[in-house]
Amino acid sequence: MASRNPSRPERPATLERKASVLEAALACFAKNGVDGTTIQDIQRAANCSIGSLYHHFGSKDGIAEELFIDGIQNLNHGMLAKLRRCKNGEESVKAVVGQYCDWSMRNKDLARCLHSRDIEFSGEARARLKEIHRDYIGAIYAWFAPFVECGEVRVLPVDAYVPLISGPIQEYVRRWLSGHHPNPPAKVKTLFADAAWNAVKG
Amino acid sequence: MASRNPSRPERPATLERKASVLEAALACFAKNGVDGTTIQDIQRAANCSIGSLYHHFGSKDGIAEELFIDGIQNLNHGMLAKLRRCKNGEESVKAVVGQYCDWSMRNKDLARCLHSRDIEFSGEARARLKEIHRDYIGAIYAWFAPFVECGEVRVLPVDAYVPLISGPIQEYVRRWLSGHHPNPPAKVKTLFADAAWNAVKG
Amino acid sequence: MASRNPSRPERPATLERKASVLEAALACFAKNGVDGTTIQDIQRAANCSIGSLYHHFGSKDGIAEELFIDGIQNLNHGMLAKLRRCKNGEESVKAVVGQYCDWSMRNKDLARCLHSRDIEFSGEARARLKEIHRDYIGAIYAWFAPFVECGEVRVLPVDAYVPLISGPIQEYVRRWLSGHHPNPPAKVKTLFADAAWNAVKG
Amino acid sequence: MASRNPSRPERPATLERKASVLEAALACFAKNGVDGTTIQDIQRAANCSIGSLYHHFGSKDGIAEELFIDGIQNLNHGMLAKLRRCKNGEESVKAVVGQYCDWSMRNKDLARCLHSRDIEFSGEARARLKEIHRDYIGAIYAWFAPFVECGEVRVLPVDAYVPLISGPIQEYVRRWLSGHHPNPPAKVKTLFADAAWNAVKG
DNA sequence: AATGAATGAGCCTTCATTCAT
DNA sequence: GATGAATGAAGGCTCATTCAT
Fold first, then answer.
1. What are phi and psi of A153, to 5 degrees?
2. Of all nucleotides in the shown strands, which has a C1' nearest the CA of C61?
3. Which chain C residues touch D116 with a CB distance below 8 Å?
4. Which of these, D77, D74, D81, lies nearest to D22 by C-alpha position?
5. Is chain A adjacent to chain C, meaning 3+ CB pairs within 8 angstroms?
6. CA distance B166 to C32
7. For residues D121 and D61, is the Cβ–Cβ distance under 8 A?
8. From residue B188, how far is each of A160, A199, B194 by CA, in Å?
9. Are the C-beta atoms of C167 and D168 separated by less than 8 Å?
10. Does at least one atom of strand F sit less than 7 Å from the CB of A56?
11. Which residue among A202, B179, C57, C164 is least enclosed by CB atoms within 10 Å?
12. Alpha carbon B98 to chain centroid distance?
């Protein structure tokens, strides 16, 4: 989706235009949601024509898809990069909490969008997202498996790890992003990291 | 909101009609979201006329508001009733997790709606919701204050309690409701209750 | 398609409105073709709102479909009614030419539309049209079969009858309707009827 | 129309490009009609750039015009060439039917386009077409006039000749091209030629 | 209370065409 | 000659809401 003709690289000007559109769209989506944002909103924010939007992205959902796929991949890659620098289970679990917190603070708008559930992806994008998610979950599990095996991390129902480790920080970030309270998650980062480790340590 | 003219009780027939509309609307909202549901969808599902919908609820948002205000109050009342039967902080914290889990399993559609974030309430409804939330949070804090004071529950940033206690079970329920995994939350109820208690005990 | 709820008859007012829309649409279609006619054109000609159009017909094509299905059925029924009053093959063949000519002169706009080929029917309408056509062709063949069997009408490849009998008058009408020449087909009706009979008589 | 600058012959490369575009456009037009074909459809089918299309043809209609003018002239020239080899009225009338049949079978896509009525030509092209048509009709009438004068061909209203002679084969070809029936017109060529002659012979 | 036809602002999208490179 | 990004008018359609019956 990043290019209509993958065999020929896009010119820099094209990439710049696309990037500026994505930036503008992100601001709109974060403010009013995807459903609450009109093509005209994006077009005005990006200072381009409607035709240009469709030329580059094919549809309104096409913009959201590219934005979110890029965003999720960015989040995932950052998480995996962080994990690879960890020596053991404890560092890893705490890194997940910390990285999620840091990334959300650096990418507030994107985080806001990823939390909202009003996105309706096309079949193609849904497949791509599933693939990305599968790969990511696979990598995560592969990373933690040794720590579980050696007993450093508790054996739990597989579906329980993510909620126990990430549930609190995600909930905190969600509330912070939606303005429920003013305190940035940095304040509770280590507290939640410790709690996460306590919840899953062997 | 349950009646337009509190001085004259509504006839049972009217209440039945309203209840059947709310039921139909809930099913639609749970399936397609509030934004994704049209008045016609509800009308068809409730097997009534459009005029009737407007006669009873005034607007589409009026339906959502009545539904969600009732739902939140039901959830809140159940939670407080449960808490009042608890003797100490540990029982209380675990009851919060357990009750949230049980309620969500008994009210899947409503839980799905409450998780979604695409609802835009009118000024009047927003005020009513804020009031309800304020009262509820006040009652919750009043209940837990003694346990914090006596040291049974840790002293933490106020914004941290809810995420630490409810974050994991909420995240688990959300994933279960959206079909990410098939295992109902009952399976992890006590596990998550224990983790919640560990996270906030003194 | 004539009604959204076939189990309940439409009120006269509704039928009148639909009829006036169909009338207006026919005028537009005859003038500019279906593709060349916009919903706004019809709306202005019918003096109603866009919403009303969609309320009654569902889509622009829905209007065209109802119009053409009604039109074709009208043509077919008239043809069969005429045939049933014929005593032999010769009268029948000549009646086909004459009736086609008369109907086209009485329904110029509809005839113009039926000649144009720029209509894209929905699956449902296409199925309905196929059914109508099948029934009509079946009735026509059933009518002529005895005359072929008794030798009054020639045995020919089945696909040849319609072009031989109707081809000339259709071509003449088409040219007249599109303004290629000013002489109405009444002038050549009997000439073409005789030619048709000559072409297929036994 | 074949060249923008008649004083300087186009290079073969240019002609090849134009020819390949016309070929691609014809395929598109035959499949989806002129209105149903977009510039992008042609561009993709011709494997060239949009700019190139406009460089060579000026507009979408420019492509259709060149294609159809060439096509009609090809049809007309073939017809006249055939007629000139006929010795009398009977041979001539039958040649018209036969040639139309043969040409349509050899140029199915073009025939399909010429049958469709959704083409809206520009003033310049319309004038050119009228001129072509006038010349062609003039030549045809000039050819047949002697046979009418000598009594070999009946005296009929001028507008009746074409429908009587060509109507059946045209209708047959139209139905065959649109898939209504599978039998190619070659099967009925002589049958229809005989019928045509019967219809107009003196 | 009930009904559903009527309304029209606003949305997403298409597509022929232009033009700078 | 070739390229394709940019343009924006115009089209079909949705949908919450009103109101006469």
1. -110, 140
2. F12
3. 117-118
4. D74
5. no
6. 65
7. yes
8. 7, 13, 10
9. yes
10. yes
11. B179
12. 14
Position D79, amino acid: M
Q: Tell me, rounded to whole angstroms, the distance of Cα C179 from its chain centroid.
A: 19
Both structure tokens of D142: 């000039």
Q: What is the pTM of this model?
A: 0.89
Residues of chain B with Cβ-Cβ distance to A187 below 8 Å are 157
Q: The tokens of D38 are what?
A: 């977009």
The span from the CA of D145 to the CA of B31, in Å, is 76
Closest residue, chain C, to D190 (C-alpha): C160
Domain A60-200: assigned CATH number: 1.10.357.10
Q: How crowded is the C-beta side of C201, counted as CA atoms within 13 Å?
A: 13
- C6: closest CA of chain D, how far (Å): 32
Cα dihedral value B44, B50, B56, B59, nearest 10? 100
Domain boundaries, chain C: 60-200
202 residues of chain A, pLDDT tens digit each:
344 444 455 666 788 889 999 999 999 999 999 999 999 999 999 999 999 999 999 999 999 999 999 999 999 999 999 999 999 999 999 999 999 999 999 999 999 999 887 677 888 888 999 999 999 999 999 999 999 999 999 999 999 999 999 999 999 999 999 888 899 999 999 999 999 999 999 8
Q: Is residue D108 classed as helix, strand or coil in its secondary structure?
A: helix
Distance CA A2, CA D167 (A): 55
In our burial notation (b when 16+ CB lie closer than 10 A, e otherwise), range B43-72 reads bebbebeeeebeebbeebbbbbbbbbbebb
